[in-house]
Amino acid sequence: MDIEIPDSFDPEWQQTMLRQLAGNIEALKERDDDPD
Questions:
Q1: What is the rounded distance in angstroms from the CA atom of residue 7 to the CA atom of residue 36?
Q2: What DSSP assignment string belongs to 1-36?
Q3: What is the pLDDT of residues 2-36, one digit of tens each?
Q4: Which of 1, 29, 17 is nearest to 9 (CA)?
Q5: What is Dmax (Cα atoms) for the chain?
Q6: Would you put residue 4 in left (φ > 0), alpha (ψ -120 to 50) or beta?
Q7: How far apart (Å, rounded) are the C-alpha atoms in residues 24 and 30?
Q8: Shortest CA distance to 19 belongs to which of 11, 29, 31, 8?
Q9: Hey, what's the torsion of the CAs at 7, 12, 13, 16, to 10 degrees?
């Protein structure tokens, strides 16, 4: 998976990445909660 990193780390881009990361973690947690 390629992640584009802009030359300048603008706060808006960081917020987007953090939100995406948090969403991924939440999804993983939810998957773990499901007993297989």
A1: 43
A2: ------SS--HHHHHHHHHHHHHHHHHHHHHHHS--
A3: 877 667 778 888 899 899 999 999 999 888 877 66
A4: 17
A5: 43
A6: beta
A7: 10
A8: 11
A9: 180
**Type of residue numbered 4:** E
Q: Give residues with Cβ within 8 angstroms of 13, minimum separation 6.
A: 6
pLDDT of residue 11: 86
The two three-digit tokens of residue 8, written as one number: 């300048």
CA separation (Å) from 27 to 21, 23, 30? Answer: 10, 6, 5
